[in-house]
Amino acid sequence: MTATQSKVDFAHEILRTRIVGSQYAAGQRLIIDNLVKDIGVSQAPIREALRRLEAEGLVEYGTNSGPSIVQLDKTHWFNLMEMKAVMEAYATRAAAPLLSSEEISALRETNGKLLGALDEFDFEAWTTLNRQFHEMIHNRCPNVLLIRELQRLSQWTDTVSSLVFARERGIIIQTLGLSAGRETIGFHTRIIDAIENGEADANLEEISREHTLVLVRRVQEKLSTRSAA
After folding, report:
1. Crossing angle between the packed helical segments 123-138 and 101-119, to the nearest 10 degrees
2. Structural domains of the chain, ranges and CATH numbers in brackets
3. What is the model's pLDDT at position 120?
4. CA gyration radius for the chain?
5. How far apart are CA 19 and CA 24, in angstroms?
6. Rounded to 5 degrees, what angle do the CA atoms 211, 121, 214 make?
7. Which tens digits make up the pLDDT trace of 67-99?
8. H helices then E strands: how many in the chain?
9. CB 160 within 8 Å of CB 19
10. Residue 184 CA neighbour count, 13 Å, CB half
11. Whole-structure pTM over 0.70, yes or no?
12. Would the pLDDT of 172 be above 90?
């Protein structure tokens, strides 16, 4: 615990890291007395940290029972991704008329860097660049409330992904591989072309939405194939 970090922040950070890192099982009861001994702070900051985690959707309190790890499944992630696809598509369409030629060039440059990261199998760089690509578009969306909710949804989707795909993540990345990465870059190119051509219409929205939904379908297919094997 750092000098500027409160005991609540300290406990919250430890517990959240453990939950997202799948150190606790879904539905596992969290015994406060055990957490006190384990983390080294009193009950009060532990309870407050758990309430924060409840607000984040990571911990739940059942009727007449203490806190436990929330039980999420892959369907929850699929549903979140569908919501994200719809919101991102609308935000892209709304932002398109406001993007300058310089910003469009920056989008092409970032997409080119994505191809380099893909060729080098640099997943960390890929993830960062992909997020930057979409943020450059979303930053020009005039609906700030929509973007705020989209950011929250994206963060929660990432958290749920970490929880429900803890064991399959490496397998999914490996099996989707280069083809999915190139498909993503192809969708980005279509989005950029549509923006550059002034096509801020239903077609652009459809391209953007399908960009995310294709990934969802690919993951569903891979998981279905593994289950049937």
Report:
1. 160
2. 7-69 (1.10.10.10), 74-228 (1.20.120.530)
3. 87
4. 20
5. 6
6. 15
7. 999 888 888 889 999 999 999 999 999 999 999
8. 9, 2
9. no
10. 25
11. yes
12. no
